Amino acid sequence: MFARWAKNAKAFTKVGREIAIAVKLGGAEPDNNPRLRAAIQAGRSLSMPKDTIEAAVHRAASKSETNYEEVTYEAYAPHGVALFIETATDNTTRTVGNVRSILNRYDGSLGTTGSLSYVFDRKGVFSIKPPATDLDELELDLIDHGLEEFFETEEGLVLYTSFNDFVAMQKALEERKLEVLNASPQRIAKTKVELSLEQEAEVLKLIDALEEDDDVQHVYHTLKMNEEEE
Length: 230
Fold this sequence. Notes:
The chain is an alpha+beta fold. The protein has three domains: 2-61, Orthogonal Bundle (Arc Repressor Mutant, subunit A); 69-118 and 190-224, YebC, transcriptional regulation domain (Alpha-Beta Plaits, 2-Layer Sandwich), CATH 3.30.70.980; 120-189, YebC, transcriptional regulation domain (Alpha-Beta Plaits, 2-Layer Sandwich). Helices cover 43% and strands 26% of the residues. The chain has helices at residues 2-26, 34-45, 50-61, 92-105, 135-143, 166-175, 197-212; strands at 69-76, 82-89, 109-110, 120-128, 147-152, 157-162, 180-189, 193-194, 216-221, 223-224. A hairpin with a 5-residue loop joins strand 1 (69-76) and strand 2 (82-89). Helix 1 runs antiparallel to helix 2 and helix 1 runs parallel beside helix 3. The longest helix is centred in the first third of the chain and has 25 residues, at 2-26. The radius of gyration is 18 Å and the shape is globular. It starts with a helix and ends in a 6-residue tail after the last strand.
C-alpha cells in the first residue's frame, strides 16, 4: 500500500512539473495551450485528483511554482543501448550530477549533445477509447490531420503522428469528441538492440534508477524487450 502511494506521489510530482513548464511556455488556459491539455490528460490517466491538477495550474500561473526548465541528456547504457533522458529541473548542476552518478553506477556513460539525435524519432502518441465509428473511416478522416499509423490494444486505439502534427491531431480528436486516455510527445527508437535476458536486466536496472530520480521526467531507450514480438 505504502509503495503504491509513493509511486503515485512521484508520478504526480512529474505531472506537476510538466504542468509548470507548459504554463510557463503557453499560459494557464488549457483551451489555448495544447501542451497544458496534454499534461492535464496525463494527470487524469494516472487518476490524479482534479483539485490537485487545478492547484498545480494555479501555482504555475501565480508564479509561486518553482521555475523549472527542460534539459535533455543523451547517454549510453551497457551493451550499446542508447538512452535519451528528459528532465525538468530548477538546478541543472544538481541534475547533471545525479544523472552522471547513476550512469556511472550502472556502467553507463553520458554522451555529447546531438550524438543520438538520429537514433530517435519524435512522435505524437495518443491513446483513445474505442470509437463507435468504423475504424477504416476514422483512419481516412484522421490522415488529413497527421495520422501516420494506429493499432488496437485491449484498452482502445493507439495513434501515431509526427511531432509537428501533435497539436493538429489533438484538436481533431477533441472536435470529434473522442475520449483521449493519454496524449504525449514521445521519442521512438528507429532501431532496437536485442540482448540476452541477463544483459536486459542490467540495462533495466539503470533505466529504473534514472526514472527514480526526482528531476527525470522520461527515459527513452533502444532496448528491444524480450517479450516484444517480432
